């Protein structure tokens, strides 16, 4: 039996429905919109292109400013991870808020038949391969000629404990995904596009390779920040352009046996208004001029796509084999699944949860719902602690579970049941509770990713004060100081207090006052 | 008398209306230009964006707004609101015509065409030549790709490492293949299968399921090794120009010719004409009268024909414009297509079947 490759009829109907919904939403939302006019919300405006974009494109600002002067088109970018953006396109959500998407690559997008009718006019603007940026001292120590290093050598160095690195989460970020495809191709010896069999064959080597991953991140921006705090991580995996822009003069290694390259196609959403389509056409025409291409390569260190424009001098001109991106969704998703559940180092996380009196009612219900949602997301081998607190940590309700690959539902069900039993009472002892989370995690073994999530709806009222926590944290052994706290802004919590905790521990604040609590928990997954 | 005068007046009036109808538009500079919207294959994007093309169309009373799509993907778009669709070949044009609300208007027009070629980096081209897969011209910047030898190499899963001379070049490793576009979405990808299928089946054009079955395993191999494929011919060419991607990429001759005619330096690019190839007949399907008028102008207006050449297309019929303009670029372009045979293209239905079976992942049945 043969599967129909594309259910065209149904897709067309779904698309037509999507269009109708958009029109409705647009016509009733603009008059009801909250005051400040077209420059803020997501309403369409003449001469403005609303773009859902990969976060590293923030470096295009000066080029887009030139483009605005030349074409009159203003780009209003909202940043998102590639896979998240693909979901939003497939569900039809993206076309309600944006005119175009500009991701590092449309490779994964194309594996989803449910996105086919929703996009049009893909115009690649520039390219950048995913590479390794290694500290010059590490290159010297390993005795490498950067032009000749292969994936096998990288694997060997990691297995020998000679090389550690940071990489973004392949499920959130295209650079991580591309790196995963490259290393799986390189270590399986696949001669053409990856198959499930290649992935299986390479599993032992891949597992060894990922023991060297000391940093994970949901976005490449935070990865660079986290890397800058660490002296014990030798390398970063990211786009060549990002690596060359990272302080510290990293030596860029494009492995000699092949790379996966991003080509940044500016892509229209089919449902975009005509005026926006015309704006996009003007913009892409401009971005393809030799003048704009020269500016792009000079400013962003990406490679030009127009004949006769040379790449910036810092970009090495040697050709590399391009490793094919998987041609089927089952291979791509199988690879992501293997990464999460068997290849990567498992994570250990403590959720420090404010269940003080002020959480009673709707807030506690939202927390319970968000946690229930989250439990389905825990990976095999992951250790999760729920640590509710009020005036102090509620010890009786604090439990730790590990997801057993043989019976993953067991731990998930137990976590969900525990979350359902949370009750609100007492004051808010943020800092004392954090110290208990650090003690609970103990000396972080190098074989796991450890982190703390702090969810609070108010200011610290009980137990240790902020200064006390500073002193506690600074006195921790270095290995334990690598555990970041990811605070979630919720209810009446104090932004400056949470920022301070994140800065101190190398974490990052997530805002659930503007988005949802589920959304914040989900976003943090990329950092765990 | 009054009656006669009435008839005369009526005739004059009708004539006047007819006169207005005939002259309104093209020659009538006084009226606002008519806006024509259409969806086109990406390879024609730069043609329609060219300010001189915009000007030439405006002189004829038309403003043309376009968006691009893979040729086979066009039929998935809601065609309402478009005046024309302009895919890169006859197959998708036939299907679009079948979907058109007004069949009478939708008679397709083919203003220009372009043969499919393979661009190669010079290292790759020289290795192919040294191993009998290609023959290069004196300057080494163009040549002929031997399809028989190439398909034999694909059947044998030949890797670059097995070709003599490849070991000197880091980038030449892995399975030997030509990058093409998704044959279910884009015209050039489907035409590549048509040419390969024709050669593989001993010079027979596939006429049905049985014929498709004979070449399906090979076509599946040509496709599967590539992994994810792009949905338009512009993207893989841009990767190539950028120095990334596979060293062999299937493109339209027009994409290369346009760069040459714009005076762009071509770096280490070599143009290989497959000894059996397919011409892409860029086919405009009018959906309204305005779309039809655009098709007529593209076919007949001397200025627009000249501008089509600037973008590398070969106008239909005797086209001294193309020969003359590309004369300085003989080192890259095979103007008279010497040594290149045209494979006939199967019908749209058969071609779709070929594409579906080539893309089929994992199911060997």
UniProtKB/TrEMBL annotation, chain A:
Signal peptide extent: 1-25
Superkingdom per UniProt: Bacteria
GO molecular function terms noted in the UniProt entry: molybdate ion binding
GO biological process: molybdate ion transport
InterPro entries with a match to the protein in the record: ModA/WtpA, VWF_A, vWFA_dom_sf
Residue intervals of the VWFA domain: 348-528
Keywords, ordered alphabetically: Signal
Protein name: VWA domain-containing protein
Organism whose genome encodes this protein: Streptomyces termitum
Source lineage: Bacteria, Bacillati, Actinomycetota, Actinomycetes, Kitasatosporales
